[in-house]
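User: Type 2A phosphatase activator TIP41, Heterobasidion irregulare:
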Amino acid sequence: MASAVMVPVHNLSESPNTRTIEIFDWSITASASPISNAAECDALQAALGFPLPEMTFGSNRLELEHRPSGWKYVFGTEQALKGVKNGELGEGDGGVKVGYADAWLQSRTDPNSQLPLPKTVPTKPYDWTYTTTYAGHSEGASSSEVAWKEENLENTAHGIPIAELTRPDPILFYAEIPLFEDELHDNGASHLLVRIRVMPTCIFILSRFILRVDNVLFRTYDTRIYHSFSSSPPLLVRECSGWEAPYDRVKRVRGMSFTAARLGMFLT
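Assistant: Predicted structure for Type 2A phosphatase activator TIP41:
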């Protein structure tokens, strides 16, 4: 029989749309607000230079702060959308074409369109699937103090311990933070969701972008971040990976559900 895991001292706080846990040297805040209003969309679209996804959660954010150093690692909507290709897509950009993509794009960029878009509507092309390889970004302490390094395959601390994450340890903090979602004008779906759970021994974050273009393809891009509270000096492990598969191949799998979790498992 497995021994019980000791629950460390931690503090939880909550306010409208925001939840925070303070544990060891870390402060973690999850902000999950409703879809951005018209004024917020106007400002964000002007900053990005292309039409926003149908459901944009511009104020949503996950912030992981190491209090002694002031270093922060953040997942936020604006930075995620900055990873979307803005302009003509060339070879290697991952562009996706459907039967009436040009007409669809025109409907999203035409100032005379009946769609409720902000007034500052650009007329240039962009990646209409909103594919992004955004893996979060750093704030706070300078990069000379905190920096990502290549994995040392001989160092077991540089991997994510699946066995630890699958143990039935108590979950002290859990949050889901949607950043954006779009139904691609009934051609499929594109969305980015960040999840975090804090357990007595560690922090685990999964950011997952999922794209489904009907009759064309499925695509995912995952960022996993793991931190063990016992690591000294503090160490965060980040794994980024992406997969793509033809739509028909996924659809042929008997009983396959198109949920994000099952799709990620299948493409893996």
